[in-house]
Amino acid sequence: MASKGKALELARTLLRLSRDDSDRISGERVSGVLAWVEAHRPPDSLRVLREYRRLVASEIAQFRAVVEFAGDVSPETFTSIAEAMSRRYGRSIEAVPVARPELIAGVRVRVGCDIFENTILSQLSGLASAS
């Protein structure tokens, strides 16, 4: 059994190998990495794969703006949000719309760990905690 540190080190190496020439995660390269892991079965493969999946998900999240919304939102709004987030972070970011009626109205945008929110639900929650 490999130590957690060695598993993480191998997962980071696999992550580097999963990037294409533009330094973004490539589905083709991820498939190649997974085929290598299956063929070579490194020590503590399950831990390595869990760490690898976490790292890949985190990396992909850096290039996606998950736009949760309630109510009517035009496609142009999603385009504007993607452009604004791309300018803010200095890299191309894709908007991924997700309908969330429980927000009541407004949008919540998540890029990686950053959240930008202006929803009725968050405002009501703020009022409820203030009283």
Q: What is this structure, in a nutshell?
A:
With 131 residues, the protein is an alpha+beta fold. The protein has helices at 4-17, 27-40, 45-61, 75-89, 120-130; strands spanning 64-70, 94-99, 106-111, 114-119.
Q: Topology of this protein?
A:
Elements: H1 4-17, H2 27-40, H3 45-61, E1 64-70, H4 75-89, E2 94-99, E3 106-111, E4 114-119, H5 120-130
Parallel strand pairs: 1-2
Antiparallel strand pairs: 1-3, 3-4
Helix pairs in contact: 1-3
Cα(first) to Cα(last) distance is: 53 Å
Q: Which range does the strand content fall in?
A: 15-25%
Q: Would you list the SSEs in sequence order as H and E?
A: HHHEHEEEH
Give me the secondary-structure category: alpha+beta
Number of strands: 4
Indicate the percent of residues in helices.
40-55%
Are there runs of 5+ residues with pLDDT below 50, and where? none
Specify the biggest β-sheet. Answer: 4 strands, mixed
What is Rg?
19 Å
Strand order of the largest sheet: 2-1-3-4
What's the shape? elongated
Name the average pLDDT. Answer: 93
Count of helix runs:
5
Oligomeric state? single chain
